[in-house]
Amino acid sequence: MTISFRGGFYGGLALALCIGLYLIWLWRPERQIRLHTKNFFQAIEHHDWMAAADSLGNDYQDQWGDDKTRLLERMREGFRWVRGSRILSPNPAVQVEMRRAIWVGKITVYSSDDGVMEVLDERVNKLPTPFELEWHHLSGKPWDWKLVRVSNASFEIPADVY
């Protein structure tokens, strides 16, 4: 079986079309926010603080008064005690508005340490309100999203932790 120039051309065109359609699907803002959030949670689970820092915008500020540097310090300190951590967020909602997106979902944190699980259940897993993660699109690149704010009206950080 020989491949003619015409057959090769149409095959290449079909392949390019399939790749283009895949990239359009992959680069949709809602899909990018879901992927970035998943990757951010996985970076925290694996204590990969460089990857977590890369997900955060330089202008990060949250309701607890943390900036990017302080948040990374708190995560590093807090997750030092969480062994075998797993962060789950079933069925989050994503709202996209131009260069801004809000990820809203319940976050459940698991640990292989039973003592830590009691604290996580009490302070995080049983919160009545979902977390909101605000992402900003920084450039014309469809994958260039950074986390700039996290909030949850019910989540309180104890005063002795400040």
Strand order of the largest sheet: 2-3-5-6
Subunit organisation of the chains: single chain
- Mean pLDDT, to the nearest integer, reads 90
Low-pLDDT residue intervals, each spanning 5 or more residues: none
How many strands in all?
Answer: 6
Our measurement of the CA-to-CA distance between the termini, rounded to an integer number of angstroms, reads 72 Å
Question: Which percent range fits the helix content?
Answer: 40-55%
Element layout with pairings:
Elements: H1 5-26, H2 29-45, H3 49-55, H4 68-78, E1 86-88, E2 93-97, E3 100-105, E4 108-110, H5 114-125, E5 131-137, E6 145-151
Antiparallel strand pairs: 1-4, 2-3, 3-5, 5-6
Helix pairs in contact: 2-3
Features:
single chain, 162 residues, alpha+beta, Nuclear Transport Factor 2, Chain: A, two-stranded antiparallel sheet, elongated
